[in-house]
Amino acid sequence: MAIPTLNLVCKSNLHLRPLPFQCLRKVVPRSVPSVEPEESNRDSNRKQVNKKAPAWKKFNSKELGFRNSMITSPIKKVLNALKKKGYNVYLVGGCVRDLILMQTPKDFDIITSADLKEVMRTFSWCEIVGKRFPICHVHIDGIIVEVSSFYTATRGKPGRHFAHDIEAPKGCDKEDYLRWRNCLNRDFTINGFMFDPFAKIVYDYVGGMEDIIKAKVRTIAPAATSFQEDCARILRAIRITARLGFSISSETARSIKNLSYSVLRLDKASDGNELYASIWIW
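and the corresponding structure tokens:
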């Protein structure tokens, strides 16, 4: 069943400088056709435990209006190489959001069922970077492609977000569980998409499509908890809001106001990019 889009209004709960919205009107899909809503008896039982949990949804990328041709050649080479070895591989995060909005992603993030050592064995020039949350940097065609693994993405974060009354899906298989858990650990609902470019399916476990239609920036976990876990998300929320012309949900805006002092603790070396990318709109 198609979900009609709403008339989008450029406004912000933080009174940020509005951006022209005409371009966004052209890229938001006119309708959002559902390929297979994840609705069943087990979902009904899950909703009784947590009525706020969004229903799972799958969307066909062609019906959303974007094609794999929008993915750059180096990214396709990495995706194809991992898939050829039998691993599941997905695009994840903001790049999927941008594809849905028919915008060219600034960069692409890949996540795979291969562990990082297997990723290293797949590519001739690859290195593991980061101690706290390690990922692979794949050097290909003159660029660096970031590849993370399902098996290290949540390492060191036991129980994160799982204490927020979000019930694990009943009867889901291993692949669904890994996708769902990874999406819960992301920052905003509109960054919580996962896209399988081979099956051409966009997975939405956190209500991201609904917030794209509403043009809202909303945290996945309760906003206060999310920003206390990573205060750089405050700047990221403002930057995304300004770039897309979206508004910020009331709960998220309230927590930004209450916790804004925490950005002073950001380390310039590791979080400076968020600061400099956002400071122009203050």
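(Above: one complete record from the training split.) The two ends are 41 Å apart (CA to CA).
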